[in-house]
TrEMBL record, chain A:
InterPro entries: Alkaline_phosphatase (IPR001952), Alkaline_phosphatase_core_sf (IPR017850)
Residues binding Zn(2+): D135, D386, H390, D428, H429, H542
Residues where Mg(2+) binds: D135, D243, T245, E381
Protein name: Alkaline phosphatase protein
EC annotation from Swiss-Prot or TrEMBL: 3.1.3.1
GN (gene name): phoA
Annotated organism of origin: Rhizobium etli (strain ATCC 51251 / DSM 11541 / JCM 21823 / NBRC 15573 / CFN 42)
Presence of the UniProt keyword Magnesium in the record: yes
TrEMBL record, chain B:
Top-level taxon in the UniProt lineage: Bacteria
Source organism of this protein record: Rhizobium etli (strain ATCC 51251 / DSM 11541 / JCM 21823 / NBRC 15573 / CFN 42)
The protein, known as: Hypothetical conserved protein
Length: 584, 153
């Protein structure tokens, strides 16, 4: 299954390859001074090595880049298609900041790119960084989370989310190098490397050859922290720990689907705390539930490397204040979402009944990482906001947004006691979702769409939080928020929360087209919603809209106005002074 | 459903007869013990799953299972994946990881063009468990039904 899916991914790579001489890093790349990266030139034609000339700021590249590139006479694509010659120089570093103009000529092919190599502040601004990412976090998710969690009276919110009080803000553009659209891999990779990349790529520029692991690499934030500091690293997610967002802290691959390899990359960097799902890729293939194709026992390899293992809530609690490294794996796949885990007991909760939540994992991570006198970098992902937005399951997505906000609350508490901490909260992309009013069961008639209230007819929803846990006591109240997607496959809108388990809007038919899932057809009042995406789309997709980033603490002043997601890295690097001259 | 049945009848007369005349199904092939998705594993855990006693007992025997055909990876193949619920895959945010844990790989007795019914199918064949790598595709599976045939129910 893995191999076949990887083959699909390879097709996508080739389709995206531009038919022009390409230099990696791409034009306008921003590069942290002293940070290792791979330099690659892809020519369209097969040439002789003596025909290729590369200069950097007018000088021979070997003097400036400090090495001689390997000449590849002919690169081959799928089915041995001839792609042209290439030059490849791995792991070079540029220590002196400034503009670097790279000019390439080979026969009639020429290409010129300019890189901006930047240094950072000489002294760190903060000791710790807590980077919290709500996957797919859109404005509608947070508005809905605020209203469902805190309530609203006469048009004013009855309370504020923790994320509402982070004082520095920026709008983030999340497009990829090969598309205006984005996925979690290319965006988190840009946050974590300072280089934009292609959809599905992590810690690499996406080159034209089919292999996923040979693409030109750039340094990840995890690696940069390791190279220049004695700080600890923590990664916490509710998804599989090999999923795009957590993987981007340490990984290099053209294909985010190479999860078995990503486990190995985690072991190479050895973050002090790793908590999430995805144990299937840690188990040798003989073990039922494994998704590896080899017999490597990564549980044992991590234990041999000094990690303590936690597999449920109790083991996590028992490890809360212990010393040493911690690997916590709480599900073979993605962990269950808050609504299922804490309230409905649907999804796979019966099989994995004792999963911790994002808040508990964040707490343990902070307790352990903060023991390091040199400080730490902690990445926390609210993974399922996205995973539940794709199938248009808005209640699950919003309840997970509330959980994510509670993790932000913990970080803010930590920051009060440790003011030398920068907190960054953002999404990696948005979804095409908005709140347009309420659905009121008390309105007359049986047609559910007649119960949708807009403008003055919307009134206010009647969620209650009588136990004060921050979550609405139930989501299926009689007057509830109405969230609606602006894109999707054919599906049935039921105007109700999906209490039996996550929504499956569309299923594939014999023509490989996604059609509305008839399971919901007979829900009273359900209406057919014609899709506006190609029939190959089985769910809603990411929106290209800007993402909101908010931040507080030393270094936060670096975030303002409009920024590319690759610019976020520069603020993080500056906060830790990772590109200061003395570290090179 | 109509498309499925008619395609089916033209391709495999034997099973087609089972679709058309469900009451004679047993005459075509003995159904064997019925195995449900709930009964595959005795224990779930982060460190691995354990096959149930029923799976261990029925290994090597004729069984039948009901489920859904996952979107086939190739039009012509000798195997497909049987799942408990209709499959839905997301090209950007998901990958193989989002395939459910409790899947069964079905190897057919003969190659045929797959159809994707949005309805339950019943698969009959010989149950087998333990890690096995398909030499043709590299596909690793832990639970299989071999020499299988299937029909709509
Ligand atoms: Zn997504």
């Amino acid at each position: 299954m893995r191999m076949l899916l990887a083959a699909f991914a390879a097709t996508t790579i080739l389709a995206g390859a531009a038919q022009a001489t390409t230099v990696y890093p791409l034009d306008r790349a921003t590069i942290l001074a002293g940070s290792p990266f791979d330099f690659k030139v892809e020519l369209n034609k097969q040439v002789k090595p003596e025909d290729v000339k590369v200069t950097v700021n007018g000088q021979d590249y070997k003097t400036v880049l400090g090495g001689e590139a390997q000449f590849i006479e002919l690169e081959k694509g799928k089915e041995d298609k001839a792609l042209g010659s290439a030059l490849l120089l791995r792991g070079l570093k540029i220590s002196a900041p400034g503009a670097y103009k790279i000019e390439v000529s080979a026969g009639d092919e020429t290409k010129s790119v300019t890189w901006d190599v930047y240094e950072t502040a000489a002294q760190p601004k903060a000791k710790n960084i807590i980077f919290l990412l709500g996957d797919g976090l859109s404005v509608a998710h947070r508005t809905a989370a605020r209203i469902m969690s805190k309530g609203m009276t006469e048009g004013k919110a009855n309370g504020r989310l923790n994320m509402d009080d982070l004082d520095h803000m920026a709008f983030i553009g999340a497009s990829a190098t090969n598309a205006v659209a984005t996925d979690s891999a290319n965006t988190m990779s840009a946050f974590m490397t300072g280089h934009k990349t292609a959809v599905n790529a992590l810690g690499v520029y996406a080159d034209r050859t089919p292999a996923a692991l040979d693409d030109p690499r750039v340094e990840t934030f995890g690696e940069a922290v390791r190279r220049t500091t004695k700080k600890s690293i923590g990664i916490v997610a509710t998804s599989e720990i090999e999923d795009a967002t957590p993987a981007a802290v340490v990984s290099h691959t053209r294909s985010r689907n190479e999860k078995a390899d990503i486990v190995g990359m985690l072991l190479e960097v050895k973050p002090e705390v790793i908590l999430g799902g995805g144990s299937a890729y840690f188990l040798g293939k003989e073990v039922a539930g494994s998704k590896r194709k080899d017999n490597q026992d990564y549980i044992k390899l991590f234990q041999d490397a000094g990690y303590k293992l936690a597999t449920d809530k109790n083991e996590l609690a028992a490890n809360a204040s212990a010393d040493g490294n911690l690997l916590g794996l709480f599900h073979t796949g993605n962990m269950d979402v808050t609504l299922d885990r804490e309230f409905l007991k649907k999804g796979t909760v019966e099989k994995f009944p004792n999963q911790p939540g994002l808040v508990e994992m964040t707490k343990v991570a902070l307790d352990r990482l903060s023991k390091n006198p040199d400080g730490f970098f902690l990445m926390v992902e609210g993974s399922s906001i996205d995973k539940m937005s794709h199938p248009l399951d808005w209640d699950r997505a919003v309840i997970d947004t509330i959980e994510f906000d509670k993790a932000i609350g913990l970080a803010r508490e930590f920051q009060k006691a440790h003011p030398d901490t920068l907190i960054v909260v953002t999404g990696d992309h948005t979804h095409g979702v908005s709140i347009i009013g309420t659905v009121d069961d008390e309105k007359p008639g049986t047609e559910m769409r007649e119960k949708v209230g807009t403008y003055a007819e919307a009134g206010f929803p009647n969620y209650k939080d009588e136990n004060g846990d921050g979550y609405p006591d139930k989501v299926d109240v009689s007057r509830r928020l109405f969230l609606s997607a602006n894109n999707g496959p054919d599906h049935y809108e039921t105007f109700r929360p999906k209490l039996d388990g996550p929504f499956v809007p569309a299923v594939q038919n014999e023509k490989k087209e996604y059609v509305a899932n008839e399971q919901y057809k007979d829900v009273p009042g359900a209406v057919f919603v014609q899709g506006n995406l190609p029939k190959s789309s089985e769910s809603g997709v990411h929106a290209v809209d800007d993402v909101v980033l908010q931040s507080a603490g030393p270094g936060a002043e670096g975030f303002h106005g409009y920024m590319e997601q690759s610019d976020v890295y520069r603020v993080l690097a500056d906060t830790f002074a990772l590109g200061a001259k003395q570290t090179n | 459903m109509d498309i499925f049945s008619s395609l089916y009848l033209s391709r495999r007369r034997l099973i087609g007869a089972a679709v058309a005349l469900p009451f004679t199904a047993h005459a075509v092939r003995a159904a064997g013990a019925l195995l449900s998705f709930d009964e595959l594993y005795g224990k779930f855990g982060v460190l691995g799953l354990e096959f149930s006693d029923k799976v261990k007992r029925l290994a090597g025997q004729e069984i039948s299972m009901k489920g859904f055909m996952a979107p086939p990876l190739k039009a012509e193949a000798q195997f497909f994946v049987l799942t408990e619920v209709p499959m839905s895959l997301c090209p950007f945010c998901s990958s193989d990881a989002d395939w459910p844990d409790n899947i069964v790989v079905v190897y057919l007795g003969e190659k045929q063009t797959f159809v994707q019914p949005r309805q339950t199918i019943e698969v009959r064949g010989t149950l087998e468990y333990g890690s096995w790598t398909d030499p043709e595709t590299g596909f690793v599976s832990l639970l299989r039904i071999r020499q299988a045939e299937y029909f709509a129910v």
